[in-house]
Amino acid sequence: MASSNQNTDQFKVLIAGGSLVGLGLALAFERAGIDYELFEKGGFAPQLGASIGFHPHTIRILEQLGVWEDIERQVKPLKHRKHYDENGNCFEDSHVLVNIEEILQRPIVFMERCKALEVLHSHVKEKSKLHPQTAVVEYEETAEGIILTTENGARHHGHILIGADGIHSKVRQLMADNIGVTNPNLARKINEAFTSEYNCIFAVSQNEKFLPDGMVHNVYYNDYSAIAAAGVTGLVFWFLFVKESKLTRTPKCPQFTDEDAKTYIQKYGNSLVGPGYTVKDLWESRVTATMVPLEEGIIPQWCHNRVVLMGDSVHKATVNPGLGGNTAYEGIARFTNGLIPLLKENPTPSVEQLTEVFNKYITGQAPRARRVVDISGSITRYEAQDTWFLKFAARHIVPWFSDRIKAKLYASFSKGGPWLEYLPLPARDIDIGTAAEEPIQSIAPRLIAGTIILGAAAIIWQTRRGPLASL
């Protein structure tokens, strides 16, 4: 098939992946006047049983992109959280979410991922740049740029390629293959960077009076846990997390079928999630459900020549605190904040100049991504009571710490998130550029994100005793 996009003079970004990160990039580039083409192997808003939580620092970016109002109309901000033991006893009644909203002037919200994607897609002005049902199969770098080949045989010319195509990233695989020509050991490390020790059923169910709008229920068992959140009227988003007997590593992490999920429900279905309802009750009221492994990790190299990775393709966290997608939007901000000034100065930058932008994005994003991956994994193990210490801390230490303290710790973390420096800030953030940010390093990095919802006083204690990685 003949090549498309023959004009190689105007700088163009090629994006692989049309989920939250890809569409966010499309909007960010469109607002900046940067040409791009986006390729998605499936549709743009599939109903896969998935949900997404947006935190205040991401909401700020969504406001800048002009999409937040459409999302806000669909959600009920999360206000309260109750923590239960295996017998249905509430051992912590938390109002930290209310405190967070008071401090940051923005809530934490939860919604169907497909609905969020619909909003993002609707705000893209030039739909002709979005190519659904168009999988990437290979790329080739030239002296002038990069040529992307899709499964229909079309060849698309651009200057950089962003792999925003998720945990099973084709672009990451292709990049590793190219690196492997001269450094097979590094290529192997990239391919094997993610591990999985927990599996998860995530689902959306009809909210048949399971819990009121704005409420989150957490229940703690030995080696498994569950969360239910009512973030949209009429629906409940829920998760069942189960520890497996052995750790697996990409590319050999398991894949699951509907029958596997049903087997889990048979085993854990009678477990209470909140007062008067069980995992099985939620399952029987489901709209959609999916079972997946919870990969976690960060790859050792994020870019190569004209290719750079973003989102789950490069850093993957367990989903318990809901920070994965939010961390990806931080990446969007950091990357575009570096690329746009370069293109204004030099519309046809060299590979060396692009590499400087890539490295600046990575240097800014990697430490925070590492914190999120570490703390998310710790929360997963905390909620599943992976050790006697975590069980004791959840029941007897954490509830004694005030919600206000937990909220302030989280707020310090959230305030450290970047924004789109080339777009106007919302009025409430007008002084953000001059406000003194409390150094994250001074608050025990592995603690901060853990205080988001459940308040990890246990992590404070553990941090003083030694690294969380030892849990």
From TrEMBL:
Name of the featured protein: FAD-binding domain-containing protein
Highest taxon of source: Eukaryota
Residue stretches spanning the membrane: 224-242
SUPFAM superfamilies: FAD/NAD(P)-binding domain
Lineage: Eukaryota, Fungi, Dikarya, Ascomycota, Pezizomycotina
Major localization class: membrane
Subcellular location: Membrane
Family affiliation: Belongs to the paxM FAD-dependent monooxygenase family.
Record Gene3D superfamilies: FAD/NAD(P)-binding domain
GO cellular component, one term: membrane
Domain FAD-binding: 11-346
Organism of derivation: Penicillium atrosanguineum
Pfam families the UniProt entry points to: FAD_binding_3
GO molecular function: FAD binding; monooxygenase activity
Record bears the keyword Chaperone: no
Keywords in alphabetical order: FAD, Flavoprotein, Membrane, Oxidoreductase, Transmembrane, Transmembrane helix
